[in-house]
Each structure stands twice: as structure tokens, then as C-alpha cells.
Amino acid sequence: MNFPLKSFFRIGLLSQRCYSELKVGRNYSTVKRFYKNTSISSADGKFEVLLDQKKLKTPNGKIFQVDSEPLAIAVATEWDSQRGTIDRSSMHLTSLCNTAIDNPNHLTKLDLTNYIVNYLPTDTVLFQAGEEEDLAPVQAKEWDPVIAWFNERYEADLEKSRDLNTPQVSEKTRMNVSKYLMSHNEAALHGITFAVDSLKSVILTFATLDRFLTTERAVLLSRLEEEFQLGFWGRVEWAHDSSQQELQARVAAAVLFVYFNSSGSFVKQKMAL
Prior knowledge:
Blueprint: H1 5-22, E1 31-32, E2 38-43, E3 46-51, E4 54-55, E5 65-66, H2 69-80, E6 85-86, H3 92-102, H4 109-119, H5 135-153, H6 171-182, H7 186-199, H8 202-209, H9 215-222, H10 224-233, H11 237-260
Antiparallel strand pairs: 1-6, 2-3, 3-4, 3-5
């Protein structure tokens, strides 16, 4: 399967908009928009975001600079899409950039790689219900093809667990996944980590990054057990829809962030912000 990257950007913006609408009337601290225009500029081969010609800065006070022009445009678009108030909780690309620039925990590429590899034994899709449970055939139908794809794509040998035992991850699988991760730069690894933490799954994250799954599909599969239970017990629409839209926005942002930090060449396009 293959999906255009622009769909991830569209999904992210739509999900952020729906999520913001669902939060109306709830208690969230906001800041009034203090600028009229957004734009980007280049300096020493890097790209900066300007708010009324003032350079955007990170929480640690560093000048906001990224290597990718499309990423700078996307961040400027996030700021431009804010209306009367600024909802920082919905600005996932901005947050990812801030994390990569400030790196508050001083994480190296090896630290990030080890974190993701060590997440594999706890991957959501590897823990499936026992055969006697009603959920088991649903998980097997929806999750097993993704596990099979992952094993083929990364020459891995992951197997699911139907009990409380933690799935075993072979040294071969760890090395192959580590090699793939280390081929990315540090910024991209921050994005992959963000997606893994959001989906609670390395497998679903990799499938989304490789465009084997759409963002919506990956989110649905990560919430499979919850959605199954809701089919029996019903759903509180605003709460469950808000959670789903927020998760889609986070994952779509992570995919874009990884792509913008991994691609060596981009088609430059003029965008009126």
C-alpha cells in the first residue's frame, strides 16, 4: 500500500481542528494570538519561522531553526492556523521541533534507538487475547497481517503472545530494527519515538511510516480492544471522538516530521501564509 504524504498533512490539520472543536467549553489555558502574519526565512542553510518578523524561539530560548524548508512551512502553517487564541496542545509539529532542538533530556541517537528497540517486547499488537475470548479472532484478523508484514519487511521473527508472558525478541530482530533506526538522523528519531509512544506500538509506527497503513487505520488498530469493548458497552461520543482525533493528529504530525527530516531533496513550493 502507498499513500501520498499530503494526506498525512491533511489528516493532521483536520484532526487538530476537530479536536479543538470538541474541547470547546472545557477548561484549557490558552494565550491570545499576539501576531498577525507568519512567514519563514533562511539563514546559514537553515530555516526559521517568523511571527510578524520576529523570530520564533524554543521553550529554552533558542532560535527556532530546522534543516527542512517544508517543515518550516508546516510549522508556520500551524501558527497561522491559530485564530483568536493559541492552542499549543494541538501544535504537534512545533512541539516535535522544540523537543529535537532543545533535547531537554540530552538523548543521543543510540539512546533513542535503544528506547524504541526495547519497546518491542511490550508492543500492543503482540499481546492478543486467549483463543477462547471473543476478541481473539478480531485481533488475529486485524493485527496478524501487520505482524507478518513487519517480519518480512525487516527480516524479523516476532511472534504474538496469547498469555501474560512477554513476547521474545531475538537478537537478529533487534539488530535489524536498530540498523534501520540508526539510518535516521537524531531529529527523525524523536519523531519515531513520539509515534511509538502515541500508538503504543513499534510495529504500527513502522507500518505507517512505510505507508503500509494510513494514519486512520493505524490509530484504529492501536485502539482495537477499546473499540471492541465500546461495541458492547457503548461510547461517550465527545470523549472517545476527542481521543481518536487527538491521536490521529499526533501520529500524522510524527509521520510528517520523520519524512521532512529524512528526505534529502524537496520540491520547493511557494506558499502564501
